[in-house]
Structures are given as structure tokens and as C-alpha cells.
Amino acid sequence: MNEQYRIAQKLGLMFFHDNLLPEDVKAWAISQLHSKSPALGIKKLSLYPKSKPKEWPKLVQPNLLERDNMFSTYKENRKREEMGLEGFTSQAAIRDNERKNLMGELDQLKFAHRNVYGEDQVKLRFTAFWANHFTTGNIWDNQNHIGHAIDEAILANLNGNFSHMLYKMTTHSSMLTYLDNCWSCGANSQTAIWAKKDGFQAGLNDNLGRELLELHTVSPTAKYTESDIKNAANVLAGWGVWPGRLGGDKLLSTAQRHEWLMKEGGTLDSWNFFKKTHAEPGTKKVLGKVIPAGKGGLKQLTDFLASHDHTINYISFKLAQHFVSDNPNKSDINYIAKAWKKSNGNLDQIHTAVIERAVSSKEPKFQWPMTWLFQVVRLSGATYFKGWDEIDKYNKTIMEAKKVFSELGQSFWHERQPNGYSSDKKEWLSGEMFERRIRFADAIYTAGFPTSNPDEIMDRIDANETTRNLVNSLNSKKDQFIALMCSPELMGLENA
Amino acid sequence: MPKINLSRREFLKVSGASLFLAGLPLPGFTKVKPPGTISVIMLEGGMDGLTAVPPFGDPNLSKMRKGLTPDNYLKLNSFFGLHPSFQYFSGLMAKNNASIVHATNFPYTLRSHFEGQNLMQGGGLSPFSETSGWLGRSLELAKLPGRSLSLDMPLILRGTDRNDNFYPASIRSSGNLKTKLIDMISMFHSKESSQVFKKVSKKSTQKDSIVPRDPASLAKYAGKAMSQEGGPLSSVIKVSQFDTHSNQGSDEFGRHGKLLKLVDEIIAGYREGLGDAWDNSIILTLTEFGRTVKENGTWGTDHGYGSAGFLAGGAITKSRVISKWPGLAENEQFDKRDLMSTIDYRSVCAACIEKSLDLDHDLIASKVFFTPELPRVYDLIFS
């Protein structure tokens, strides 16, 4: 592969046939970190590839409050359904409720569109890395929020500091609901005291506190104790609100719900929602750091953890393994860690260091199934995802984005464990996963009508001899296309 | 490590559970077969042993976890009850074909899912110390030439970097796999990726089997496969989502209870599928840790230590609740929060291996669990 495509494979999502290739690909990749990031996509399959991709309309990109309200409405309608209220129990009504109020399907389509049509390919790759690092698996109660977290807590903060991203992810509804923080309260909080008096159950939940240390920051190498975990959970106690879970069995109107939110948290903003009555009084100590009581404590904790040596080393390794090479060496990791320390966690500097090492390292990097799929679609100019106007329309040749990711075996909207997807090549070398690459290459060719044929693609990327020999050993254009996309070169298994 | 000849393996995955079959003898293989089969049900997320098998004879139970204990538990003896989700299992106990080990775990106390899951499958001395699993190593020791493994199967069965798996995909606009095309792709790949495509190619000539969709049918399918002459000698079913930090519930309709019901259905599925092979089979559950004794502030429980293990199969001829009960009072708990583990669950696994694969305990202790002094509990379970 020529240098431009080699780097676009490692750090981006591949160029389209009509893209001008940058002469200095390293400079291009670094400049990509500051590219604009509109959510580009297509309205209808039939309009493409003739028309240019457009930005997703605001109407299908609701803001956080709208997402909260939609999810609450969804849950209220489900209660009405359970009560057997007329107009809420038919299959049509149930589907209508999902279609109007749930964002999972639409957000997955938008994610696919962005990755296929986006002009910010390097940013999108770093977005995927961090979305995986801060995994918020689907627990259904957060299905309206996963996509929002990816766009607004990660993509929107890529040019800031790691500590800011850490704080924004830790306090995002998608995370607070996924790791059960919304009802957690300190043992000596007002809520716990009232509950004790009234014979109710209330207290601490350490799920998020534990993963904050183990997975998001310092990792077990820091040798934190159970008391560190408990205190991290105590700092977190009070954070979060569960939009669909207010009012118990009672039906709440939006106005009643908002009244509750104002009373409990003093705001309708679920991304900045702190219930004083749930907070644990007193200072807390986490890994030796003293954290004061109150809402501001969490920022102090995440800032402290963000700049901890163990965090820097652990995530530098993860970045190197994801972007630089399947077996990153010490100097790759140290180079990134050094840039991290020198810039005090500035993500531009960290990402630049990753780019520099990925460019200088000639080692191959095996690509995740979802990354590979986007790269195949972009390289070939296929049209493989429906338009945003067609989400409810069955298409007999093209699957829904949600179904694509489900069959592919990888999606940020799947139910999964908080440690996320591995970047280790070994975890993906399996017959099941490889069979799917063949099937998807076939489907993209058959249903996506690529604008480039295998020969054109090979010329454009300057495919290596192995790839050319493989493709030329086959007769039909379709077989050639499948073989090209499943070649070691395009899977990221060998050097160009 | 001995060289392994690989044959075939089937990989099935359905919503809510995954199944892995392993230990398939090669066709024409004449060596005497091990006496039984061994199946593992992995309960990911941390199964709450105190909810599953409530020790109602312990006065502290009702004090500490009122909201988590079902009122309608089934009585096992004067001290232990059984969660109402285990209707089928309780029938097996009445027939002397099932037992429970309580207050047990792998010796891991740090409460991380990922370290705990790695340890319960790897069976090593510390998390992430092993790249193979205890069941994989056992099958290897039993000299099962057709042991079949894959990298995306659970670590518990791993032991080689060769892999072979298959789950028929359902992808619109993709046709049938063409052997010639896949062979060419495989030829141009090198090393491990070439091997992987070779397996895909082999599978392309086989008819897709009908894949069951629910865990009970999955277990039935596994049992049936294991009952066939030349069928797999081992299977693993994975059920996840036991990590109920909030709204855990108490009875069979609660979050944890529904999952326990699933375990009960899986065991029933195995029983049905195994048919006559039931007599020589053993099924055991595995979980990375138990959950806190006390209910947490969000109607759930946090990560703990000791839990309970469920054993079923015709290899068991006398039902028991095997336990050295540590007590639930705060000073009897581990770290003043968890049920203590008084039986090393590795010993339980070792006993099941000894029974089904006819391996010597000392060999298992040293070669599978790297702990020569591992206590032998065989007689507690199988005498």
C-alpha cells in the first residue's frame, strides 16, 4: 500500500476515489485532529452516490434534555401499556412508542453515516478508541444516551484535556446509569438517614467507583485497596438521575418530572445532576489524595486520577496497541506517555504522539471488524447504509445499521461488559469473525454497488504483490472484490 | 506441551447464552474413552450464593438481606433453603442426582470481574498468569486428541492458538460460502490467519445445523451432541448479567431470580439432551465471585467473595449440601462484607475432572491447577 493509504488504514477510515491524496500524510493526519465534525450522512439511498452527503438534520439529532424527555415518555407509555390503558397495548402502539421515543436505531445509523461519509476520519478513529475505553454497554435504560455520550462527551472534547473528557464521561447519564450510580448514596447521607428511620433501603453502590479506578484510569497496577474503591464510590454518591425511573409505578407528566428534577438537583440538566441528599458528608481519601465533600469533589478526584502515572502508562499502552502495532514496543508506549506528561494530558499532544509513532512504525495493525467495514465501504464507494429518512422502511437488500453491527459482532450499542473490545489481534482471530468478513464483503459488493472495481482500488492504493496475485487468481469481479477486502493487506495483517 | 491434532468444533451463540463444545475424538480414534462427560455453566457477573441457596438457619440472614431473600424458598435441610427458581434442580436433588457446595470460590479476593473471570477460567495462581484454561488443560491431560479450541471461546477451554468455530451468519445480500474462494484467500494469508480461513473453508462444505435460540434448547443440543458416539466430551455454556448492583429482587421474578431460573432450565435441557449419557455426566456452575452479604443502597449487592456452586448429573449418586458454614455475623465475614469461602472451588473442579476424565487427583492438582497441595474433596461429592 502506498503511504497515504497505509496511514489512512492505521489511523483513519480510508480515502474515497475522488479524494486528493495528501503529499505529507503525517501532517495531514495531525491536521485532521482539528477538522470540522458535522454529522454527515444521506437522506435516501436513491440519492446517492449522485448527490453529496449532507449534515444530519437537527430534527433527528435531539439534544440531551429532549433525549431524557423522550426516554421518560417511553417509560411512561410502557407503564400505560402494563396498566392496559386503551391506545397503548396494541403492537402498533408499542412500535410507535419505540419509534418516536427511542434513539438506539437512529444513533447507530448516524454513527455508521459519520464513519462512512465523515471528512474527519482520524478524529472518528480516536472517538471510537475513547468510546471503547469508556464503554457504556446497553442496559436499555441508557439507550437514548450512548450515542449522545459518543458525540458530546468524546468527539466534542477530543481537542481538550484528558481530565475533562474523563469528567464528562464519568458524569454522563450513559455511564451513571450503566454502572448503577444514580441511586447510590453515602452511608451517612441525608437519604440514608431518612431511609433507616423509615425502614427503607438506601446506601452505597460501588460499581462505578471500582471501574473508574480499574478500567478508566489507574488500572490494578496502582494497587488500590477496597477502601480506595469505597471512597471513590463515596465521592460519586449523589451523581446522576435516571430519566425513565422517576415516580415508581405512578404516572408522571413532563411537568411533574421536571418539578422533581428541580427539587432534587436544582436543574433539568442530567449531565450536571447532583443530589445533595445522597452525598456522603466529610472528606474522602483515594490513593492518598484527600477529596473534599460536596459536588466539586468529583472533579478533584477525576483530575487527580487523570494525571496519575499509572493512568498515563496504562492508557498509553492501550493507545499504542490500538493504533501503532499489534505488539507495541516499550519505546512506542514511552513516547506517548512522555507526550502525555509533558503536555499535562492535552489530547492533541497525546494524539499527535500516537500519529507520529503509527507513521514511523512499519508494523501492521489489525483492524477491528467495524473499522474494516467502514474502510471497505469508503474504499469501494459502495452505498451500504440506508438514509435517515428510510429508517422504518424495510429494504430487501440492505440491512438496518443496527442489524449490520449485530451480525458483525461489534457495536457500541451492544450489551457488554465494561472492559470494552480488545485491541489485541489474538482476540479477533477466529473462524466466526473471519467468516463474517467474507459475508460482508459479499453483501457490500452485491447490495452496495461499489463505484470502484477491484483493479481500480488496487491501483489507487498501490496494492502489494500478494494482494494482486490473490485477486488475479480469481475470475469473477465479485470473488475478486471479496478476496481483495479479505486480503491480509486490507485486514491490516501484513505490511504493505 | 504435547502436539495436538485438531478436528472439529461447533460454535453456537444465542441471545442470553453462548455454547461451546469441546473434546471431540477424531474419527477412527481407538483409545479408550474417558468414563464420563463434563460440562460447565459459567455465570458471569458474580452469582449471589446467598440468594440462590439461602442459609435460613443462620440468624443473620434475615437481618442483613431481608429484601434479597425469597419467602417461598424450597427447604433443603434444617439450615439451607433453595431459591424457588430451581424447581427442576430440586427434583434432581430428590433423585440424588444433584448437590450444592456452599461458601466456596476460587481463591481470589480482589473483586474485579475481569481478574476474577480470568482466574476462574484460567485456573492459574494469579489473574492473567495463564493463556490456557483449566478445562482445556484437563482435556489435554486426558489425551483427548480431538480437543478443539478457539481464541474466541472462553479461556477455560483454551490451550492452543489453533481455532475452529462456526456460527451461521444471517447477512442480507450475502450468498453461500464458496470453498474455492476461501481456499485462495487462505493460501495468500500467512500463519495463524491462514489457519483461520482454512477452518472457515472446511465449514463451508458442511450443512448449517439448526441453531436453537433459547438457553434450554442450547443445553439440550449440547447434551444430545455429547450423548452421541464420538461426540464431544465437554461443553461450556456461558450466561452473563449476574452483576445485579441494583434492583436485584428476591423471588423468581426478580433480576437475579430470572437468571437463576435460566440456570435451572439449562440443567433441565442438559438432562433431556443427554438421555442415557446422563448417568456418566457431571455439570457444574462457575462464577467469578459471590456478592456482598448486606444489601447495598440500591436494592442490589456489590462484588463479594464466597458463593455457591451447583453440581448435577448421574455421576452424583447422593445429594448433599456440602459446606463448612463460616457464618454471616460481621466478624465471620471476609473483610467484614463478604461471605467467606471455606472450600476452595478448585478442589470441586478437580473432583469433577477426576470423576469424568478419570485423571489422578495429584496430577490434576499439579498440572491443571499448579497447586500440588490442593485438597481432594472427591469423597465429599461422589462417595
Describe this structure as you would to a colleague.
The complex is a heterodimer of chains A (about 500) and B (about 375). Among the domains of chain A are: about 5-60 and about 105-135 and about 365-490, no CATH class; about 310-360, no CATH class. Chain A has 24 helices and 4 strands. Chain A has helices at about 5-10, 25-30, 65-80, 90-100, 105-115, 120-135, 145-155, 160-170, 175-180, 190-200, 205-215, 225-235, 255-265, 295-305, 310-325, 330-340, 345-360, 370-380, 400-410, 430-450, 455-460, 465-470, 475-485, 490, and strands at about 40, 55, 285, 290. The mean pLDDT of chain A is about 95. Chain B has about 375 residues and is of the alpha/beta class. Chain B contains 12 helices and 11 strands. In chain B, the strands form 2 sheets. In chain B, strands 1, 2, 3, 6, 7, 8, 9, 10 and 11 form a 9-stranded mixed beta sheet that branches. Chain B has a two-stranded antiparallel ribbon with strand order 4-5. In chain B, a hairpin with a 5-residue loop joins strand 4 and strand 5 (about 80). The longest helix of chain B is centred in the C-terminal third of the chain and has 20 residues, at about 255-275. Chain B is globular. Mean pLDDT of chain B is about 85; it is low at about 1-15 and about 160-165. The chains are: A mainly alpha (about 500), B alpha/beta (about 375). The interface between A and B is large, with 63 and 57 residues.
